[in-house]
Amino acid sequence: MIIDTLDIAVRALRRNLLRTLLTMLGIMIGVAAVIAMVAIGNGAKAQVEAQIASFGQNMIVVMSGNASRGGVSMGFGGASTLTKQDYEAIRKEISGITAVTPEIRTSTQIMSGNQNLNTSIIGANEDYTGIHNWPVKSGANFAEADVRAAGKVALIGTTTAKTLFGDTDPVGQIIRIKNAPFTIVGELVSKGTSLMGSDQDDVVIVPYTSAMVRLTGDTKFRSLNVQAETYQQLASVQTQITELLRQRHRIGEGKDDDFIIRTQQQVTEMATATSQVMTLLLGAVAGVSLLVGGIGIMNIMLVSVTERTREIGVRMSIGARGSDILRQFLIEALTLSIGGGLIGILLGIGGAEIVSAKFGWTTVVSMQSIVMAFVFSAAIGVFFGYYPARKASQLDPIEALRYE
Q: Which of 177, 201, 299, 332 would staple 158 via disulfide (CB 3.0–4.6 Å)?
């Protein structure tokens, strides 16, 4: 029965093929737009997550300076509150961690021969590269002994190395940082641009002890980077560090912390929140075109009912019931919407691929968006096709046969 009705519906739609294709066009564009827009939004989110992952795995950042003066919060960097004793305590007393490194940052002029540039200097220990998933491309990492002795050794980023030494291997070369000679022991693998658009490879990493003694004169740390053993232990480690630092800094009950702790999970959620909103907005805007396509289906089906009034009267006069007429017109509407949806899926996937190839954007076509767009297009066929189908099923056979 359904097969016969479907055959009748297809033949009815083929009578005016151009009108059928134009009606399907609205659904095709709507479905394609939803899939392509969601793919762009998901791609942006995936790119952000990948860049955050490149900063390190299972990482917790403890930042100094959430102090208050005169009732005003100073925020990150407002005060130096993390000491070397805090760093040692975290290394020894916190369970579920694999590595900890202090971090001191400054920017200064460095020189080699007749070349010089202003670059970022990071002071850290030998665990920094491991915590941040930043392997050494050539040479080797500096050792724990270099950190203890405040050794004048350095790791160099690819951008800095290229600027100072061109195509020459920088390992073994001498650079001067604030007139202090540092020997390059290793060149880092390129990391590219950060989320903020800065060049992560324009950097020199030295032992934090050397940075404190020879470059900045700091006695306290800007931040500490802690790596948990597993992703599941991030919350536990964060709680342990909070309790330890509150105890060490003698922060009483009800008092604000003089430090800030952010886990990689929290940073990811904050960074991807904008991408998620953008994905929803893009999907919603594209979804409007699906509604427009549905209105087009209703319009054409109403026209079809009017044009085929006499045909409907003939069917009813030879025994067709109202439910048969209702089913026939509903199947016609569904055929339009599902056919347009299937073609739209192919166009949406192709459009996402073209955007990725043409503009270099990361796009991620999800099965969820495909299913959602297809189901929505089918639902539109039922929703906007029901009224014309019901109108056709309620025609009076006698009046329909008289219709000219």
A: 201
